[in-house]
Amino acid sequence: MLYRRLYQFFMIYFLGLASLMAIKYGLQLSDYVIPGPPEIASTGLRVSGRYLLNVLNTLAVAILGHILAIVLATGIGIIGRLTAWIGSFIRVAAYNIQAYPIVAVAPIIFILLGDGLSSRLLIAAMICYFPLLLSFVGIFSEPVPEIEHFFESTRRMTWRLQIKIRAFENIHKLITVVVGSATLAMVGTIVAEFIAANAGIGYSIRIALYQSDLAKILVALFLIGICTSLYLVLLEWIGYRIRRRWAIPEGGLK
Amino acid sequence: MKTRALKKRVDLYLAVVVFFFFTADAFAGGLAAQEVTYRLKWLFNISVVGDLWADVNGNFARRGLKVTVKPGGPERDAIKELELGRSQFGVASADQVIRAVSKGAHVVVLAQLFQVNPLQWIYRPARTPIKTPQDLKGKTIGITYGGNDEAIMRALLAKYHIRENEVRLYSVRYDYTPFYQGKVDLWPLYRNAQAPIIGEKLRKAGERFDFLNPSQLGIQFVANSVVTSQKMLAQHPQIVQRFMEALLEGWRAALNPANRQKAIAIVLKFNRETPAEIIRRQLPVTRSLMLPTADFQFGKIDVEAWKQTEQIMLAQKLISKPVHVENLLKPVAQ
User: Fold this and answer.
1) Per the CB < 8 Å rule, is B84 touching A31?
2) pLDDT at B5
3) Check: complex ipTM more than 0.85
4) CA distance B253 to B72
5) For residue A114, what is the domain's CATH number?
6) pLDDT value at position B192?
7) Hey, what domains does chain B have and what are their CATH numbers?
8) Fewest C-beta atoms under 10 Å: which of A39, A234, B52, B142?
9) Total structural domains in chain A?
10) Considering the domain boundaries, does residue A97 fall inside one?
11) Alpha helices in A27-144 (DSSP H)
12) Which of B77, B103, B173 sits opposite A30 (nearest CB)?
């Protein structure tokens, strides 16, 4: 899984780079518009160590934000399943809040919380929270009648059991949405850093843009891609372990 | 017989009509204004009042040019647009020009808009008395990492032998709160565009303020200038000449105190967000930065300032080798 993810990323990255080079040499553009391979290589050698630390910093915040979003979405999703009205209200609120562009909301967050970790964390969580919430509300509100009926008729149904049944029946969907939202957490963190933070790879990209240094941005994109791929592989592996643990043995339940 | 002659005549008329129909565009093209695009460095504000004046008052049209003036912004780079053929003229700062040339871009400078760099630092003299550059020691100074102000401040510190560990550099953004709160002693801003707004707030709060102007301390770092590509200058010198004549004429008119109300109205037309009262304050400051003396020749290129800008960039390793910027300065319309 790890090797496949990485070589697929390398393929995409180098195809993109090759397209850029085709445009550069096709249109005879200077290194100012699109840097040549020697400049990209020398920039990579010069900044990749520092940029790797920045990407890891960003990734750490993204993971924290992602965990925070999962916890929040689970909590709200559980509350949202209580009645159809609450579920629908949460969905509408989520749609409305998600419609606000983060670049408009972020300055307010930075004014209130400053440009430290808390702002980056909050924005990362905000970006990946809503897709998670909508899925969680949907999954936790959807009854599994063939199983739930038994526990209800035997009066053994509790809210915890209900959540477990619904989560178990939709474990594939839950894992897919958690893995998918991980990239959003990374994007959210980078956007936050780009707008106002003083650390992380988004901040480095912003400085590189000020200096019109596309070579640095290409190096940053390469490292972001690798680290995001590794995080996704980790999440898929955790999902795989959970599925195996929850799976019904071939011989059936004893 | 008569019918055949009539038919021939009709055919001839038809042929003439068809000929004119298909060639009308070509004729019109020969007589129509030459279309060019002019990409500004920033959004429509007081710093582009002359560009807008030339557009609105027909200075370009009178010289046979149809100019599309496009606003700039943080993601816009006029030099890249010149190279990609999306614009024929643009506004760029000296550091952009020097950086681009060091990476193989073929760009020339036609005029220098600001004679004094508007990028300066605001401070409160009551809280932060600064009489000499040495007073910067121990102060918290805002800079935009990667921006012009970083290069200017580092050059200033280097010139006065102030080590980086003797000041605290603070990474700034659009939010002025750290300055208002007193966490940062000196905050970078554009003297003509932002200072009247920030100054107004400080004035309302009963605070005095002043500016640290690096050019008064010997740091000449050139700001906005009009640029085009070497190819454009070589292949269409007449268009470049006409464009620059119209543009400089527009700027001179916009900065003429007699045209004050008209200039303010033009900025307001394109920028409804800034109150007229603020624009009224911004205009004289802009004039003083572009025309330092009453008889100053607008658009004059300060060669020594350009050379110093290149030296600063070399010293700070922002470029790897000299570009001999003096060879790029082509004031065609002066």
Assistant:
1) no
2) 61
3) no
4) 22
5) 1.10.3720.10
6) 95
7) 34-116+222-328 (3.40.190.10), 119-217 (3.40.190.10)
8) A234
9) 1
10) yes
11) 37-80, 84-99, 102-113, 117-141
12) B103
